[in-house]
Specification:
By secondary structure, the chain is α+β, with helices and mostly antiparallel strands. The chain has helices at about 15-30, 60-65, 70-80, and strands at about 1-10, 35-40, 50-55, 90. The chain is globular.
Length: about 120
Amino acid sequence: MITVGMNYNIREGKEQQFESVFAKVLEIMGKMDGHGQTHLYRDVAEPASYLIVSEWSSQPAFEAFISSEQFKNVTDWGKADILTSRPKHEIYGAEPTPTTPATGCPMHDNSLQAP
């Protein structure tokens, strides 16, 4: 299993629209082979900054999702109207490659929690 962190910066005033579209994308994700669970988090210090944490059975399963026509349609819409910058995706728990370091998910790393 892998966990993917997807970071998005949203144009001011577009937060509600982003959250509504995320709910629709979550429905699509739920039908994809290999999808486990997904949660949307909003940065309390930067309200236009979001993190989507998504669990997948494997990296190829996640890659099939981001290669899907539905995902491409949403990203095209987001680039034109919602996002301030290109999203950043980080894969936690994958085997290390030159482009994906092996790291733990900060949302599920017990070593980062207070005693």
